[in-house]
Amino acid sequence: MRIVLVGPPGAGKGTQATRLAEKLNIPHISTGDLFRANISRQTELGKLAKSYMDAGNLVPDEVTIAMAKDRMEQPDAEGGFLLDGFPRNVSQAEALDELLNTEGMQLDAVLDLEAPEEEVVKRIAGRRTCRNNSAHVFHVTYSPPKKEGVCDVCGGELYLRGDDSEETVRTRLEVYHTQTEPIIDYYKTQGLVVTIEAMGPVDEVTARALAALKREGDEK
Questions:
Q1: Which residues bind ATP (predicted)?
Q2: Per-residue pLDDT tens for 111-141?
Q3: How many CB atoms lie within 10 A of CB 136?
Q4: Whole-number pLDDT of residue 152
Q5: Total structural domains in the chain?
Q6: Which of 44, 138, 157, 184, CA to CA, is 20 to 30 A from 197?
Q7: Structural domain of 140
């Protein structure tokens, strides 16, 4: 299957992308991983992307699209893929359509993870990260540490990261609404959008998504 996964910050895209790709036996292709891989390998695209990033500028769509094209052409993606973080806007969605059409392929579904905005803010702004190890993450409501402000694992100080602050989260949500959300309407005109309720236990959300994809596949 060829799938695009969309949803606001805090909807659990990264978690669900990893789980769904594993269940469906297709590669999980994320924009962040593409950038890191190309930069670490010092590919021409990686050097180009890094030059923009180092200057504090956004990486142009054409560079992101070229990276995605290269990744989708790898042997492990022949049977499908799950795109996470790409396309990020309508122009990228149009470019993806053009690219797939050129290769005689098409998307099977666009999974839209939906979560109430205030819940998203609560999810992210409630995170507390260990200063000693950023992999140790707690939540003031959902998974609080045994002792407030102290990591259960190593005893390090827990703090609120700057990009997890409520102000930053609301800014990220506004960017999502203005830049990325329009691709949902774009794909609705193609009958590809499958809306998934992203609230609840992780396993339940994964099961909902898999069931919806099966229905979509049966209908086609």
A1: 10-15, 127, 137-138, 200
A2: 999 999 999 999 999 999 999 998 899 999 9
A3: 17
A4: 96
A5: 1
A6: 138
A7: 2-27+74-219
- 172 annotated among ligand-binding-site residues: yes
pTM confidence score: 0.86
Domain presence at residue 51:
no
- Which is catalytic among the residues 2, 19, 127, 128? 127
User: Residue 87 falls within a domain, yes or no?
Assistant: yes
Facing residues of 113 across strands? 196
Structure confidence by residue, pLDDT tens digits, 76-99: 999 999 999 899 999 999 999 999
Residue 131 lies in a domain: yes
123: annotated active-site residue: no
Residue 57 in marked binding region: yes
155 annotated to a ligand binding site: no
pLDDT at 74 over 80: yes
Is 15 annotated as contributing to ligand binding? Answer: yes
- Look up 161 and say whether it is catalytic: yes
Catalytic residue check, 146: no
For residue 87, whether the previous peptide bond is cis, meaning omega lies within 30 degrees of 0, is yes
- What is the domain-level CATH number for residue 145? 3.40.50.300
Which one of the listed residues 13, 71, 123, 208 is annotated catalytic?
Answer: 13
Told to judge if 208 belongs to the known catalytic residues of this protein, a careful annotator would answer no
pLDDT interval class at 32 (50, 70, 90):
confident
In a domain, 187, yes or no: yes
Q: Where are the beta strands (DSSP E) in the chain?
A: 2-6, 28-30, 81-84, 109-114, 127-130, 137-139, 158-159, 193-197
User: Tokens for 39?
Assistant: 């930069």
Active site residue 13: yes
